[in-house]
Amino acid sequence: MLLLAILVFGGSVLGGCAKAPVAPAPRQIRIVGSIAGFPFTTLAAERLMRDDADAIAPLVRAGGAGDGIARFCGGSGEPYPDLVLASRDMNPAEIGRCAHNGVGDVVRIPIGEAASPPAATGSSSATAGPQPHSGVTPLVLMIKADDVTGTPALARLLGGFADALAPAGAFEQRGLIPLPDYGRAAAIARLRSLANR
């Protein structure tokens, strides 16, 4: 009986000395990219805030594809963006810049197209007739896969991207021209895989 009391007492004292694992402090997700992608990145950020009261509001900027990719490839961790939604994929020089700055494992996922604004004609006259439409702009989401592992809110944001890409989902309702079914299914699967790392 005495031995049992010592074990119980000793166990509670020693158990009190052990430190419980500490969850990483939440950090702000940074999203950059093109103006064409801005409606979709803001929607994803809004949904994250609605669904996760503990998340810090993501910082969303639309300064253009080239500027967004340059910021994204500038380095890893804060203050660099975690993802970029651009109107084009990275070119070889940008891929090299990412590698040079230690940004590894960049996942690039085409998600669809957005209607482009009318092309400038050089005439400001209201009587110049209808403005030509420049068509559609492809949208490519680029993610630092290593950032997803240590940032639970980023994983949830990517899960929200996957949900919003579903047929008749929130992105389509906001004007996204979806990929063909097989492309959409592949994009959703890749996003879910990243979110569940």
Question: Can you offer a commentary on this structure?
Answer:
It comes from Sphingomonas abietis. Residues 23-112 form the PBP domain. It holds the Pfam family PBP_like_2. With 197 residues, this protein is α/β, with parallel strands linked by helices. It has one domain (26-116, 134-195): Periplasmic binding protein-like II (D-Maltodextrin-Binding Protein, domain 2, 3-Layer(aba) Sandwich). 43% of the residues lie in helices and 16% in strands. It is built from eight helices and six strands. It has a six-stranded mixed beta sheet with strand order 2-1-3-5-4-6. Helix 2 (38-51) links the parallel strand 1 and strand 2. Helix 2 crosses helix 6 and helix 6 runs antiparallel to helix 8. The longest helix has 16 residues, at 2-17. It starts with a helix and ends with a helix. 29% of the residues are buried.
What is the percent of helical residues? 40-55%
Give the N-terminus to C-terminus distance in angstroms.
48 Å
- List the total number of helices: 8
Radius of gyration: 23 Å
The secondary-structure class comes to: alpha/beta
Count of separate structural domains: 1
Protein name: Substrate-binding domain-containing protein
Pfam family, one: PBP_like_2
